[in-house]
Amino acid sequence: MNDKTDNKAIADPNFHSNPNFHSNLNFHSKLFQSKLRKNTRLDGVIVFKIVTLSVALVAFGYYTPRFTNDYSMMIMNVSLINFIAALGLSVMLGMGGQLSFAAVSFMGVGAYFVANLTNGRLGVIWEPVPALAGAVMFAAFTAWICGSVLFRLSGTYFTFATIGLVQVTWSVYLNYRVLCGGPDGVSGIPVIRFLGMSPRSYHDWFYILLGFVLVAGFLVERVRKSRLGRSLASIRDNEIAAQTLGVNIYRTKIIAFTIAGALSGLSGGLYAMHSQFISSDLFTFDMATTYVIMTMLGGVNNTIGVFVGSILVTMLPEWLRPVQRYLKLSYGVGVILLMIFMPMGLAGLGNAMLKKASRKLSKNSRVKPDADVLE
Amino acid sequence: MQGLKILLQPNVFMQLTINGVAMGMIYTLMAMGLILLIRAIGVMNFAQGELLMLGAFITWGLTYQVKLPFVLMVPAAMLCFALVGVIFMFVVYWPLRTASYPTATVISTMGAAMVIREIATITWGSLPLVSAPLIKGVIRVGSLRLQYQYLLTIVIGAVLIFLVFVLFEKLYAGKIMQAAAQDKYAAELLGIPTILTTAVTYIIVVTLASIGGYMIAPVFLVNVTLGTLQLRAFAGVVTGGFGSVKGAIVGSLVIGLVESYSSTFTTTYKDAVVFLVLIVVLLFRPQGLFGERVADKA
């Protein structure tokens, strides 16, 4: 369409009752076409995304166990477990804009729950699967209680309260002998068992964890598209505006915190069964910052980005073993550089490139890509 | 109850109070830096504890490796602190000042913390290093045994707090810095060189934290784990209230005293007690004891 008709349509309020209406039919049909084209292009993008994702997933699931030895497989499994916890953080930070360090606290809740109920320390022996489900529910419940207390604070105050929570829970995990084994940790946790089957090696574990990862990722994607996700995004973008529009801020935040807690609990429970030993080292403030970095590295509001981020951060020490001495140094430098050059993480970079490519591909696309900050 | 009985013995109480105030002074030095940075750039600095640790290492290196006498060591250390401050500013803050996503700045300070810790580990190794106290020995008052190091920490902390107050409340330069911190744009219109004031703020922050590191070195040994003390400084800042330097001082002293007193009740859960206090204070007075609401970026 040319710009003259466009201007006329805007300038003339009686445009449709204009006697020359039929001469503008061309304009309407073109408008319709362009809309149609945009829709099909979007559909194309979605199909493209789904196909790429499934191919990548199948390739990842098929090739990773074949080219890795037992040890690397274990690290890979840990990175999948980390991804589940980082997903919870992406619900809090990416969708809701609330920086929370509490993921490790609820991981600990889940892990010690599974550990104590399955290894018979307390006189009861649960089946692993019900114990895992219980751990998720218990972690979610704990998160709900903590959330309803902590969300009386907002912004930075909330962040600091979560740091306090991490310190308190870490101190308990380190010192409370009855449930947490004190500094020795808890050992002798049985592996997961379902219908009489249990994984025999880390390679078997890989597929089980991949299943959990898929379910968790799918759930979080659903949350993002749902009413809750939109409420969270509105809180992130402008809390006061969200409140004016009728979003119950306190309740929404608590629900997000509970979801994050449930995911962390699941991750902690899986970790306990996977490595069969847990100790308080896993739930320190340093680990909490590592989770935040994982989430930020991949792209804070992008599930695939968080996936890449958690794999990168967990695997990096293994890949860079030859330069171990300078590993953490380069890691820190990398974090700073990343924040300077692409604060939206790898996913932000990918999205920008994708948009550029699609702009080039659609020659006369006049639709300017959305200038979304976070997506 | 046993703990309370021990705590209420007068000389135990006095001893713990002195120790608590001394530790509180160290937290205050970090907390004041945090507040100054919040005022100047509006972002929490997660590398504050690492700056303290670096200060301890630099002074140790100058004293025991370069073997400078105390009189020369002090100016040399000051020079190093200023250099660290300027480098820190240009690496962590300057490229990010226009970042569209404020959490990015916080994450980059976490990255900086990691870098500083690793540089210290690579340069000085991960074993704890022993540093002699400035004045050795203890002073006896009745049945009290007070270490000179603690008393000195209190004195030096008080002097530094006084100097910061004089700078920001009384001197013209401090007013300029405050103006630049409150509204960068307006300050630039008035011809205030904000880059200079920000750099000076960073230098002051690093110097305060580093002196804290120097004072604490004989007590805790010079060690990379000194960085974890920053969590107490955070607790102090939040307890006192974000906006005010006064609040940071009182909050940090409260945290130091709570930590000290709680040692008669429990030694294992000392961390938990401090942070429980923090959470309780936040719940009943979310703006902190001396709180004034400030617009927070992160």
Structure description:
Chain A is mainly α and 375 residues long. Chain A is 71% helix and 1% strand. Chain A contains 15 helices and two strands. A two-stranded antiparallel sheet of chain A has the order 1-2. The longest helix of chain A has 39 residues, at 25-63. The two termini of chain A are 30 Å apart. Residues 1-25 and 369-375 of chain A have low confidence and may be disordered. Chain B is mostly helical. Helices cover 71% and strands 3% of the residues of chain B. Chain B has twelve helices and two strands; from the N terminus they run αααααββααααααα. In chain B, strands 1-2 form a two-stranded antiparallel ribbon. The interface between A and B is large, with 45 and 46 residues.
Provide keyphrases for this structure.
heterodimer, A: 375 residues, mainly alpha, two-stranded antiparallel sheet, 1% strand, B: 298 residues
